[in-house]
Amino acid sequence: MAERTCILVVEDERDTADMLSAYFESQGYEVLHAAWGQDAVKLAAERPPDLILLDIRLPDIDGYEVCHQLRLQRRTQDTPIIFLTEKRERLNRLQGLELGAVDYITKPFDIQELRLRVRNALHRASFDTLTDPVTSLPANELVKDRLNQLLQQREWVLIGLAVDGLDDFADAYGFVARDDVLRAVALMLNNVAQEIGGEAAFVGQIDRTEFIVIADLTRAREVGEHIIAKLKQSVGYFYPHQESGARVATGSRPELRLSIGAVSEKNGPFAGAEALVAAMQSARRPA
Questions:
Q1: Sheet with 51-55, side-by-side order of all strands
Q2: Closest Cα partner for 204 from 224, 190, 222, 223?
Q3: Which residue segment(s) compose the domain that 226 sits in?
Q4: Is the pTM of this model over 0.70?
Q5: In a domain, 223, yes or no
């Protein structure tokens, strides 16, 4: 039997929580419930839901902090979150959206409207699993399929690039600034691959901070050198200009670190896409 879509309801008002649980269970969903923010973070880590309905006013930590902690966990970093709140101010909405919420609905709400918002968010998420939600680069199954195709070919090089230090960067400057960095890196990699990579050129993402570039064997060294040069030239622009000077002066600016490595068919044979990725990750060194 197919596993039911799971919704986590994070709501401390018992009547509202019971109503939401009963309603969405009647719609065929599996429903989990947490009344406290920390309980929600723990529960989501143990049983990652497909979507989270998250109240902002909670007894311990608020919904914004719950969202922040969920976005730091690998298993819930892309889980769709819909905020439920009585707050109507624009600033509150922007704060929720900046943290990565996909929608925002104020109490009292129409249950039919909420049902449609949940359905639409789940529908969007089903397509987003093939691409990274921030960079729109191929991810997951698309990358796996491309790597398996690669193993049947010759004269290729797989280049891996990781951007480390983004969690500290997000703590200092916010999630919007972090996502801007990821989009900028993705754009640079695409440009280099298209200009130099040859017929094999492909750019994908294997994790939020890990990218891959496939290039022709004869062009791989040039591709790698261009990637390092462009990112080193640009890394200073990733920091907000109004704050970077003061942080540099005090030594408190979070450091973004790049590592890069490459493998080719000559390093094989590889048992499959996962073995190829593992070899590429082992080959990475600080840029």
A1: 30-34, 6-10, 51-55, 81-85, 103-106
A2: 190
A3: 140-286
A4: no
A5: yes
